[in-house]
TrEMBL record:
Classification via InterPro entries: 2Fe-2S-bd (IPR002888), 2Fe-2S-bd_dom_sf (IPR036884), 2Fe-2S_ferredoxin-like_sf (IPR036010), 2Fe-2S_ferredoxin-type (IPR001041), 2Fe2S_fd_BS (IPR006058), Beta-grasp_dom_sf (IPR012675), Diverse_Oxidoreductases (IPR051452)
Organism annotation: Roseobacter sinensis
Keywords: 2Fe-2S, Iron, Iron-sulfur, Metal-binding, Oxidoreductase
Highest taxon above the source species: Bacteria
Protein name per the record: (2Fe-2S)-binding protein
Residue ranges of every copy of the 2Fe-2S ferredoxin-type domain listed in the record: 1-77
Length: 154
């Protein structure tokens, strides 16, 4: 079945069965592999994308549910002020270890800073809960979000 999908500012026509997770449309149909498959049940956050500016788990968001929405992936994050600040902070603080979860972490961090430009440690921990990092770089992720907030404030 044909679906129209607005992804990173460009409209794409994709052929997918109803019930196909957005994750697989992004990765398999559109060949954008920055969004990762982690658990498939929306528990780890590796597949996080933005749907109309809000972080969602693309493994449990279906193609038919995004027809009129703007989907943004990690590939477009550097084009936004908040995304660029988060990516700059990640590099400055060497947040990444293995890197597998980081696109989802960055997408969630951008969502947090969009809603709360000066989050407390408690705010960060509550918002980022559910984004799993197998390397346990949670302290560096937290510091990266705090640094991104400082960059945005300057």
């Amino acid at each position: 079945m044909a679906f129209s999908l607005k992804l990173n500012g460009t409209t794409h026509e994709v052929d997918a069965e109803p019930g196909t997770p957005l994750l697989w449309v992004i990765r398999d149909e559109l060949k954008m592999t920055g969004t990762k498959f982690g658990c498939g049940v929306a528990s780890c956050g590796a597949c996080t994308v933005h749907l109309d500016g809000m972080p969602v788990r693309s493994c449990q968001t279906y193609i038919e549910d995004v027809a009129d929405a703007e989907v943004t992936t990690i590939e477009a994050m550097s084009e936004t002020d908040i995304g660029a600040a988060v990516q700059q902070a990640w590099v400055e603080l060497d947040v990444v270890q293995c890197g597998y979860c980081q696109s989802g972490q960055i997408m969630s961090a951008v969502g947090l800073l969009s809603e709360n430009p000066k989050p407390s440690v408690e705010d960060i921990d509550a918002y980022m809960y559910g984004n799993a990092c197998r390397c346990a770089t949670y302290q560096r992720i937290r510091a990266g979000i705090q640094r991104a907030a400082e960059i945005l404030e300057a």
